[in-house]
Design a protein that fits this description.
This protein has about 750 residues and is of the alpha+beta class. It is about 60% helix and about 10% strand. It is built from 24 helices and eleven strands. Helix 2 crosses helix 8 (about 210-235) and helix 9 (about 245-270) runs antiparallel to helix 22 (about 630-660). The longest helix is centred in the N-terminal third of the chain and has 35 residues, at about 175-205. It is elongated and about 90 Å long.
């Protein structure tokens, strides 16, 4: 049987890993310091190599059409718009027309700029505001996103501002994405400046010791710096979204703190129980270390599920998430034990709480006794707590039934952002949003009569305001511009995309544009979502089974974790889609949710929920292996981890809320939504649902058929001593008051 002996005060003989970690602690820390310094050098400037797009499916029809149009008709896909404001003169005034043409000629002469067109060259009413005071010059900056952004940085100062009788502002998709990238970098720095000191204060309050409080922060910083180096390497081979850096910071700090809390707490328990330093470290690695490893694997698997999606926005979070989770676990299982060996009892030094502590009566209960009594109360009323809590979570999730999916646009930015101001004026003051229509690529030679007949048929489709074209090329290809009624990517525009794709034509057609990209993105996510969910569920079931040896516990873990996310999804729709609290939180509601965000939030929040679930189940299983008393083990587990999980959840929520202060709506939604999910999981699911459900399932909780028991005996882990409860292991205490924790433990 693959068993891990129960760690006692003296510990047992450590395995090879523990001997390796503790044998040369100074050398371990020195190597880590050198590697961290190299990571700082390797990861420098990683944000400048990241992109701010990634919502498109590379294999979709819209992506193919966009690529062809960009090569053959760059003017059809403008990504930079110069909004020319002529004021009271009007855009048709001779002086204004002359200056606008000069600007268009200068823009066309810039290296890297193609397809320049304007109201003054085409006369298109879509490029002129309804009041006649403003008009548009459009252009395409081709190339990779980073190269295009460099061109934009070079030309923007030359064109933005006053030119004779006109004032020029820059907008367009490229300008929006570039400004979004800049805002995200600024917001991330501010979030780190908010989160780090607050986290340190909370850790001091939890541990008391300033020395112990600094250890989790050290682990988190190592994980973040290491992940930046990993992402810098990945950018050499594929696109990585700048949004992923927010996840790196949040998970790097949050999980490092979780793991370090668990390890340091167990180490202090072992010291208080009489173990010497090295024995305490060995015992900690055999118990808490194993739990950290399982937790990291479950979180990494949840994040790895995003690799099945084609959009690099989602794949980027998988790259960043997997790297930061594994690095946080590695640091917690190597650097932290080495530091503990060197610190010994000094891990409890510098108790800053004494500065704030007032004289109070001595405690009559052992630390954590309140959690034990609370677990007993919940289990005595298990049916009530299980039904009421489940009903409440389902009720909170009901708004998600009305979710509407959309795409990210300039309204992600604050209203004062320069590119957002331009896009707002285009949206509100022009008859058709320039650059926001539907484009139909036609490939194959046709006659003018066939083109005209096709244009008339698509112009007659329900929901089409007008159809323009064709614009032809010498190879026989052409394109039509279709302007939908209403919102550029609204439900009507998406329906028009489907009708255009179904319409008969004497040539091959491919449809693109914002609405077509959204339709293809939704289809790609729907096609791969079952695979992603299957990976998360199956691997989670396997890992929890290896941890517990039970068939029912993994099923409970998956079901309760999914239930813990209902409040998050309900709040996302109620707040961000419907616009409640928009003024307080400082964002603009577009009436929908960006398509990839629910997938991302599910993977992140589910993984973090499993993180806390593993902490609790591990301690319950450890005690059950030793005593065979099911109800006592549940009380014991909640008593010994309730304070730990709550403290970890509050600290992680602080980090996520700091991320949620971002001025970019998607980042705000991710930070605040995951913070809510973490708090609901720790304070509702782990405290109420888990003990009540485990009470209802009783000893059946630990059942497994004989073949699976043999599989677990061979490949799983057990915290039992040489003989477990089935062969006379120690009996359970008569009451939770007989359980004793060291005074230094988390409350």
């Amino acid at each position: 049987m693959s068993e891990v002996k129960k760690a006692g005060s003296g510990g047992g003989r450590g395995g090879g890993w523990t001997r390796f970690v503790t044998a040369r602690p100074r050398l371990t820390l020195l190597v880590a310091l050198v590697l961290t310094a190299l990571a700082v050098l390797a990861g420098g400037g990683v944000a400048d190599r990241m992109g701010s797009g990634g919502w498109e499916d590379p294999a979709a029809e819209s992506t193919y059409a966009t690529g062809v149009l960009e090569r053959q008709f760059p003017g059809s896909q403008p990504n930079v718009l110069l909004l020319v404001d002529a004021g009271d003169l009007g855009v048709d005034a001779p002086a204004v027309s002359a200056e606008a043409r000069r600007l268009a000629e200068r823009l066309d002469a810039e290296p890297g700029v193609d397809g320049v067109g304007s109201y003054w060259s085409t006369g298109s009413p879509a490029l002129r505001s309804e009041d006649g005071h403003r008009a548009v010059i459009g252009a395409r900056i081709a190339g990779e996103e980073k190269d295009a952004a460099a061109v934009l940085d070079r030309i923007a100062p030359e064109f933005r501002g006053t030119h004779g009788p006109v004032t020029v502002s820059l907008g367009g998709g490229l300008a929006v994405r570039h400004e979004m990238q800049t805002v995200i970098q600024e917001d991330l720095l501010r979030a780190e400046l908010i989160a780090l000191p607050l986290t340190l204060v909370l850790l001091v309050m939890v541990f008391g010791s300033a020395v112990a409080a600094l250890l989790p922060l050290g682990v988190g910083i190592v994980a973040i710096l290491g992940t930046n180096a990993v992402l810098r390497g990945i950018t050499e081979f594929t696109d990585v979204s700048v949004f992923a850096q927010n996840l790196t910071t949040a998970l790097g700090l949050g999980l490092a703190i979780d793991y370090a809390l668990f390890v340091v707490r167990r180490y202090r328990e072992e010291l208080a129980a009489g173990a010497d330093t090295r024995a305490a470290v060995r015992a900690t690695l055999r118990t808490a270390g194993r739990t950290v490893l399982f937790s990291a694997l479950t979180v990494a698997v949840s994040l790895a599920a995003m690799l099945v999606f084609p959009q690099y926005f989602l794949r980027s979070f998988a790259y960043a998430g997997i790297a930061v989770v594994l690095l946080a676990a590695a640091a917690a299982l190597t650097l932290l034990p080495a530091a503990l060996v060197l610190l010994g009892d000094r891990v409890n030094a510098l108790d800053l709480r004494r500065l704030l502590r007032v004289r109070r009566a001595p405690r009559k209960d052992a630390p954590g006794a309140g959690w034990g009594r609370f677990a007993g109360l919940v289990m005595r009323r298990a049916p009530v707590f299980a039904i009421v809590t489940t009903a409440g979570l389902v009720l909170l999730g009901l708004p998600f039934l009305d979710v509407k999916f959309g795409t990210a646009d300039d309204r992600q930015l604050p209203v004062t952002a320069s590119s957002r101001v331009v896009q707002d004026q285009l949206r509100e003051g022009f008859p058709g949003n320039p650059g926001g229509g539907i484009t139909v690529l036609a490939e194959g030679r046709s006659t003018p009569a066939q083109y005209a007949d096709y244009r008339e048929r698509i112009a007659a489709l329900d929901g089409v305001a007008r159809a323009e074209g064709p614009v032809t090329a010498g190879d026989g290809s052409a394109y039509f511009t279709v302007v939908p009624e209403g919102e550029t990517v609204g439900a009507d525009a998406q329906r028009v995309v489907g009708e255009l794709r179904a319409a008969e034509a004497p040539f091959e057609t491919s449809v693109t544009g914002p609405a077509a990209v959204l339709v293809d993105s939704k289809d790609a996510i729907a096609d791969r979502l079952p695979w992603a969910a299957g990976i998360v569920v199956l691997v989670t079931l396997l890992l929890v089974f290896l941890l517990t040896g039970s068939v029912l516990v993994p099923l409970q873990a998956v079901a309760l974790n999914a239930l813990s996310l209902t409040a998050m999804f309900g709040a996302v729709v109620w707040v961000f889609q419907e616009g409640h609290l928009a003024g307080l939180l400082g964002f603009t509601s577009t009436g929908d949710i960006e398509t990839t965000l629910p997938v991302l939030m599910f993977c992140v929040a589910f993984g973090l929920s499993m993180d806390y679930g593993v902490f609790l189940l591990s301690r319950i299983k450890e005690e059950y292996d030793a005593t065979g008393d099911h109800e006592h083990s549940v009380r014991f587990g909640l008593r010994h981890t309730g304070g730990l999980i709550t403290a970890a959840a509050v600290i992680l929520a602080v980090v996520m809320v700091a991320i949620g202060t971002s001025r970019v709506t998607n980042t705000k939604m991710l930070g605040l939504g995951v913070a809510l999910a973490v708090l609901m999981d720790a304070m509702v699911v782990r405290s109420l649902l888990v003990p009540s459900v485990m009470k209802l399932t009783g000893r059946l909780t630990w059942w497994a058929p004989a073949p699976l028991r043999r599989f677990h005996d061979r490949f799983g882990v057990s915290e039992a001593a040489a003989g477990d409860h089935r062969s006379g292991a120690r009996s359970a205490p008569e009451s939770t008051e007989e359980l004793r924790e060291p005074a230094s433990s988390l409350r």
